[in-house]
Amino acid sequence: MKPITTQKLSARSMAFILAGGRGSRLKELTDTRAKPAVYFGGKMRIIDFALSNAYNSGMRKIAVATQYKAHSLIRHLQRGWSFLRAERNEYLDILPASQRVSENQWYLGTADAVTQNIDIIDSYKIDYIVILAGDHIYKMDYEVMLREHVDTGADVTIGCLTVPRAEASAFGVLAVDTNKRITDFLEKPADPPAMPGAPDLALASMGIYVFRWDFLREMLIADASDPDSSHDFGNDLIPQLVSKGKAVAHLFEDSCVRTGENEGVYWRDVGTIDAYHTANIALTDFTPELDIYDTAWPIWTYGEVNPPAKFIHDEDGRRGSAVSSMIAGNCIISGTEVRESLLFNGVRTHSYAELFQVVAMPYTVVGRRARLSRVVVDAGVRVPPGLVVGEDPVEDAKWFRVSEGGVTLLTQPMVDRWLAENG
């Protein structure tokens, strides 16, 4: 008789996070950093959500594949995730595209990023691998998905969002039968297939895949030798498994972590300036949809040693105050009115300035009498005294990036151009 074991499947699994993409829809925010390294929520980076989900699910073997402008991301991983200890059989491997296969071959696609690291994954002696994107905001227990993968005997299990069918054309959409077996995979279809029994809903792929490692390993080796393949999960491996294997859909609502008073099924792709601004400012709501204060499912990150935030001056028109806002440590709000805004660590604001729905990244400085409304300020930007942004979109667009939704992005090169003409 085999011994009874209660070991979680996550303990026998590895999380492989794909974090090499630029995220070009974030425009100048990703000029110097990859999308997973973009700041979020006052002190985190976007990748911290996938990493924290893996860690909170019980996974202690994690790899992050990097490629585009990875220094900021790698530095964050080294500083914030070094608590994993090899002597406790815990690992976080950073896997830059390093021409391990040939001198002119970087990561060709998402599947190739795994293929080029087969020897490293083999060394972990794992049974299962969970492939994750490193650029989405959500809380999910991967143990639930792993258990479903084993129970159904699937070749691949794909994490899925339930979305309105009218909006599903923006996603890769899965057609399923009544047993959640995937019968077709369609990339951004004009007429998305509906869920069984729910004609107004569709299933969108989250880019989360669970495999037995020995099974995926064989597929990757075969794919690497196929000259017609783009070596990508979504384009090559998944369609092949849908047509010839057993692919099963896992519903995100079955494994999403709900903890807050107002927290439902929360998942966001903050891949545009508008989406990024909206998701950050929404955290200042009285009961936000995403609970980042939950201690039972914390979002782990690099925590700088900072003094507390400080608010100074108390006179009419020159009062350091923040209402319905989130202010990180080491901020000094000096005679500034801050409303519905999110300020990362080290921000300095000066007298008579006004901030409304501003996302200010670390170590930005807002000059005296500046007025900012619905603005994203990149890290380290020095906003000149008296600058007004967010009140005249036509004028703003001459110097800064104005999104389709009317959010203005400020970076230091943009500010320098404005100063050259107006300073």
TrEMBL record:
* Pfam families, per the entry: Hexapep_GlmU, NTP_transferase
In this protein, which residues make up the domain named Glucose-1-phosphate adenylyltransferase/Bifunctional protein GlmU-like C-terminal hexapeptide? Answer: 307-409
Site feature: Could play a key role in the communication between the regulatory and the substrate sites: 67, 106
The record lists alpha-D-glucose 1-phosphate as bound by 107, 172, 187-188, 205
Catalysed reaction, written as an equation: alpha-D-glucose 1-phosphate + ATP + H(+) = ADP-alpha-D-glucose + diphosphate
Keyword Lyase included in the entry's annotation: no
Enzyme category, top tier: transferase
Q: In which pathway does it act?
A: Glycan biosynthesis; glycogen biosynthesis
Task: Give the record's keywords alphabetically.
Answer: ATP-binding, Carbohydrate metabolism, Glycogen biosynthesis, Glycogen metabolism, Nucleotide-binding, Nucleotidyltransferase, Transferase
Q: How does it assemble?
A: Homotetramer.
Record family assignment: Belongs to the bacterial/plant glucose-1-phosphate adenylyltransferase family.
Q: Which PANTHER family match?
A: GLUCOSE-1-PHOSPHATE ADENYLYLTRANSFERASE, GLUCOSE-1-PHOSPHATE ADENYLYLTRANSFERASE-RELATED
Return the protein name: Glucose-1-phosphate adenylyltransferase
Q: What is the lineage of its organism?
A: Bacteria, Pseudomonadati, Pseudomonadota, Alphaproteobacteria, Rhodobacterales
Per the record, the gene is glgC
